[in-house]
Amino acid sequence: MKKFRDYNTYFKLLILIISTSVLFFLLYVALYVYTTKQENNLYKTTQKQYYNEVSSIIKLYSKTPISTIIDITFWNELKKFTESKDENWYKANVASQFETYEVDYLGVHDIEGQFIVKTSNSKIKTKNFIPKEVMTRLYQSKLMRFYMKIPEGVIEVFGATIHPSNDPKKNKTKPSGYFFMARLLDQSYFKNLGEISSSEVKLVALNSKSNVEVDALEAIVKLKGYNQTDLANLVFKRSFNLHFRNTKEILVVLILASFINIFIYLYFSRKWIYKPLKTITNVLETGNETSIAVLKNQPGEFGYIGNLFEENNYQRKQLELSKEKAEESDKLKSSFLANLSHEIRTPMNAIVGFSDLLNEPNLSDKSKQEYLKIIKNCGINLVSIIEDLIEMSKIDSKQISPNYKGIDLDACVKELYETIRVTIPNDKELDLYFVENKTCISNNILTDEVKLKQIIVNLISNAIKYTVKGKVTFGYQINEEDKNIEFIVKDTGLGIDEGNLKVIFDRFRRIEDEFSVALSGLGLGLAISKAYIEMLGGTISVHSKIKVGSEFKFTIPLIYDESIPIPIPNQINVLNVAVKQNYQTILVAEDDNINFLLIKRILELKKYKVLRAINGQEAVDICRENVDIHLVLMDIKMPVLNGFEAFKIINSFNPKLPVIAQTAYASVEDYEKIMELGFTAYVSKPLDKEKIFELIDSIFYRKV
């Protein structure tokens, strides 16, 4: 007898396919049966809970009228009324409170069952509908609740016997009369019950057939009369979505698929496995070229074997395409590195070159000033390039997020206009125009002011850069309907061709023409602006024609600031700093020798006394020991204790001491973090001498 391992591969595979299919078929059937049972159990349990819930709601809904009728019917005055039948008293003391009882009918009968008086609204016109038998039963039970039919429809009736005030439990005295309250089961009644029970409520006749829906729960409450006979049914319906219909349908599909798979496996395993294996065996045994040609036409892996050379050619083409892509990537990378190297080396060349020329002994003062100006401008350009690279890196790593706050948009844009207008080079015959918004803004706009300003400055600066003669116009429009603000920057410059319009927002891409070559920059300005706009929830577009000009449009969401602004006192002006003296003492916390030397030389120009701390802990110790320190310039990144930690300690024992953060962390987020911690002011590296003096003077020359 053959062992299983002795059978051929096709037979083994066939056994595996059949056994696996049968196993899955049985599994799907078991899951279907289990799911059906679970669905039935869940529905029954939920249906039972729903009925109990409805019953409790009906009892609760009747609780208020029951409490009211109990309170009214042990009342001396009402007892006397059943004897005196004084309608004026009834109107003044009972009928006047009818609206508060939240019923549609009030009726009073004497002990003999004779009708005395009634009060009702427009819903119930019938005067007396209480049978004598009800009062006979009520005499014994003292309190009844039942349903009955009247010409206006089915009503819910509450009845109680009338007793003196000293008999609240109605077990000391005999009844003096009967008091009835009723409410009509109308649409208002059903609506209230529906809202309480989250159900659809309706009244149906006893013989009506109920159509139970699969996706709904139904609770039927029988409305019983005073003699416990059924009058009608109150039907509650609520949607029920916790069924397993989709699961069962999927399982049915899987069961059918299992059957179909068995036949498909048998057919295609013979076609795709048995025949190709037989052909391979024939090829291996005989080397028949005809068999090789047949094998090449087989599908799947066997066809791959027959078409090995064709596949090899295909792989070679793919490798060539991959090589071209890699070469293009390397080219772009090399182009970027070359551009970066060029943009950095250009200002560095000027800085190093003109610094070397300053050492010439016969150099005139005018030349020295010219060289120093060139060195300073090149340094500023270099810092701008580095800041763009850092900003783009932060955007890529998602370290930047919008800082929304309310701003006066009109004042913000006008301020930008005044700031940019004075920076236009005198050698350009160029005018800058601001088109004022015609729509009145009723409130401040909620957005990130810093990023919005940066976007506008980038676009206007580009327009000025590429416009030799003519005008640059910018403004904004409020679109209340679309809930956005559209900004427009338009110039009469060189324009952009169709090819470059597709890449101007890409990183490190610049328009390559004779004019652009003469301009510096990495080509990151528009990429950063686009990233900021998308961060704020807007879009940007551009339209341009060569030698006509360009028009950039971008939008941001129109969100009004509904918060109430809280005035923040100017920290610099309110600090208790001594009035300007001849020689103030300033502590400089700086671990870098060159940076400290620069700051010291700057401060000594104003004859300030300068102390140094080389780390945060030393700054804390000096401030604690020396009470004559008037100001601290605190570097943020220092050993032992950083600037943040040192500031917290100093502020704890000398909160009135002004501390200015001076750091190479120059992003908006860093500035906001520093000011939130309570620093007096902030200045970023590279340090500007005039800004430092202006900042220190604003502290020492505080307004008194």
From TrEMBL:
Record's keyword terms, sorted: Membrane, Phosphoprotein, Transmembrane, Transmembrane helix, Two-component regulatory system
Q: What is its EC number?
A: 2.7.13.3
| Gene Ontology terms, MF aspect | phosphorelay sensor kinase activity
A Pfam family (short name) is Response_reg
Please indicate if the UniProt record lists Phosphoprotein as a keyword: yes
Residue intervals of the Histidine kinase domain: 339-560
Q: Which CDD domains does UniProt cross-reference here?
A: HisKA, REC_hyHK_CKI1_RcsC-like
Name of protein: histidine kinase
**Annotated organism of origin:** Flavobacterium franklandianum
